[in-house]
Amino acid sequence: MIYTVTFNPAIDYVVRLDAPLQAGAVNRAAGEEYVLGGKGINVSGVLAVLGCPSVALGFVAGETGAWLERGLAVQGLQTDLIRLPHGMTRINVKVKAGQETELNGAGPAIPPDAMEALYQKLDALQAGDILVLAGSIPPSLPADTYEALLARLQGRGVDAVVDAAGPLLAKVLPYGPFLIKPNHHELAELAGRALHGDAEIEAAARALQARGARNVLVSMAGDGALLLDETGAVHRVCAPRGTVVNSVGAGDSMLAGFLAGWRQSGSYRQALRLGTACGSATAFSVGLAARADIDRLLAQLP
């Protein structure tokens, strides 16, 4: 089974304007919608679209948390969320008016007893399961939370997948994660230098592999993706053509597609192709990728 963890889920209130956003004035929406998410939940959502089951773990609070939990159930996602006694699940405002403006909520504090409840759920994971840790750590949690989670799972045959940036990603490398997914900007930050071209990106990915990561998947927005797999082979896929209308969730969708492709085919090449198709399908859509769009884009990839 694949398990995803979302420490700080959100309800995204997406507002579309026909004119540029005017500060200090009344702006009237031309359209609006609500998107239930958070990075791990996005991964679970696209896995469901691909027919690959998962369990979404994480924390919710208040009436907004109850709304999010009900909404995920309606979408067919299996969840095992921990309800917090105080606060409320955050609402993020995304204003699309030519360019995108975001106002993200802080979310509730996660107390130690709630984290212990999560640890107990993770203790039930078995060899062959996959655990996805995606995104940043809320301020209420210790900076070494990802390290503590991976240390607890060591030696149990659980494959850890980490989609994070900076020190949060660097510090989990000694625990041998199955997969890490930096984008090219995050990879350059870890390398401490600008990266130009595939050769330099590959070299930086190999440096992370030498520090413990088994597979390194580098997303490169419109330039597609590069995978350095655990055998040392490099796979490169260019992004299909399309108009980008949404940047939210594209990386999560790529990660979901990769994991589903790996589970279904056992081929890193096919996993990368499906991941690229899923990431692009989300980038070309208002919400997360739809199966028809994924299949159409997948057919365009070599």
UniProtKB/TrEMBL annotation:
GO CC list = cytosol
Could you tell me which residue ranges the Carbohydrate kinase PfkB domain spans? 8-289
Q: Which InterPro entries match?
A: 1-PFruKinase, Carboh/pur_kinase_PfkB_CS, PfkB_dom, Ribokinase-like, Tagatose/fructose_Pkinase
One Pfam family name is PfkB
Q: In which pathway does it act?
A: Carbohydrate metabolism; D-tagatose 6-phosphate degradation; D-glyceraldehyde 3-phosphate and glycerone phosphate from D-tagatose 6-phosphate: step 1/2
Answer whether the UniProt record assigns the keyword tRNA processing to this protein.
no
Which Gene Ontology terms describe the biological processes this protein takes part in? carbohydrate catabolic process; lactose metabolic process; small molecule metabolic process
Q: Which GO terms describe its molecular function?
A: 1-phosphofructokinase activity; ATP binding; tagatose-6-phosphate kinase activity
Q: What is its EC number?
A: 2.7.1.144
**Source species, domain of life:** Bacteria
Enzyme superclass (EC): transferase
Reactions that this protein is recorded to catalyse: D-tagatofuranose 6-phosphate + ATP = D-tagatofuranose 1,6-bisphosphate + ADP + H(+); beta-D-fructose 1-phosphate + ATP = beta-D-fructose 1,6-bisphosphate + ADP + H(+)
Keywords noted in UniProt: ATP-binding, Kinase, Lactose metabolism, Nucleotide-binding, Transferase
Q: Which family does it belong to?
A: Belongs to the carbohydrate kinase PfkB family. LacC subfamily. Belongs to the carbohydrate kinase pfkB family.
NCBIfam families named in the record: 1-PFK, pfkB
Question: What is this protein's function per UniProt?
Answer: Catalyzes the ATP-dependent phosphorylation of fructose-l-phosphate to fructose-l,6-bisphosphate.
Question: PANTHER family of this UniProt entry?
Answer: 1-PHOSPHOFRUCTOKINASE (PTHR46566:SF1), 1-PHOSPHOFRUCTOKINASE-RELATED (PTHR46566)
Provide the protein name.
Tagatose-6-phosphate kinase
The record lists the organism as Candidatus Gemmiger excrementipullorum
Instruction: Output the lineage of the source organism.
Output: Bacteria, Bacillati, Bacillota, Clostridia, Eubacteriales
